[in-house]
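User: structure tokens for this one?
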Amino acid sequence: MRWPSGTYSYKYDEDMAIFRTKTQWGLLIAFLILMALVPYLVAPDLVTIVLIMLIWIVATQGLQLLLGYTGQISVCQSAIMGVGAFTTGILCSKFAIMSYWAALPFAGIMAGLVGMLFGWPSFKVKGLYLALVTIGAQLIIIYAIVHMPDLTGGVVGIVIPAPRIGPIDFGTTEWYYLGLVMAVLATFIVKNIARTRAGRAFVAVRDNDIAAEVMGINIFAYKMLSFFIGCFLGGVAGWLFVGYIGFAQVDHYTLDESVWILGMVVVGGAGSSLGTIFGVVFIQAIRELATWGGPIIADAIPSLGIGFSMALPLLSLGFAYAVFLIFEPRGLAHRWEIIKRSYRLWPYSR
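Assistant:
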């Protein structure tokens, strides 16, 4: 779709900034204040849903860095979250050698190293073939977790002690604020990486890796760095999720979950940190509505059977994939960019 025509307001220093105008800074501050008030404004069940969205944002920002900036498709981000979750469980429960909080960097680093291991073939394969490699990584990681019961607890998993800070016990509200902080940090980190030398190298590798190599960019090193950072954030999301639910179990880190995470990036718009947030909200809303509405539809139309209510969330995800890839392949971020350009027309650009 073409941009709205007219005279735009452009300034070099504003275009180089994270937020171009004071208006955008004001909107950001107002949004963060609103998010901070969510536990006091909505029902507890809705707070839980928003908390899950915040955890997804951390994981999807990592995948966004891989897919959107570097062009490396990955369908194993859920398993990478599992690596972070089980690393946390092993360190603070199985061996009990550190607290939940101290396990955070280890969960991220272990997930990043595993991501680099399975990202190694990206030097030789790309596109669909790399997607198949990462699907294999998803299956291998879960298989390894299940078949190392002495370390991981197998299919039973690992229960971790309830995290606390001094006298503060963590309930849903406390986890919500921790999730909000982690989501903001993950978004800030990924958005700023795009403005660095490494970020520009990522984009060059995505656009044309051969040309990037001719220009002197070490494409293998930057692909590995991208996999490490993207999977590090996935491990952090796993750390956050396992702390909230209190146990690590492979059922939470299936291939289906990886497809959901990929859908959030695709629908939101690969290459946009803000679009990733849009995608998480949109896809999670579809998931919640389908989970809630499936049994109602199945009861109203008995011929559909009980399997329909279980399949409806994935059917809805598939439909969203099809609609966006056909009609808006650049995702919700592109739609938002069109709206922004409409009010950047002179004289409304301030």
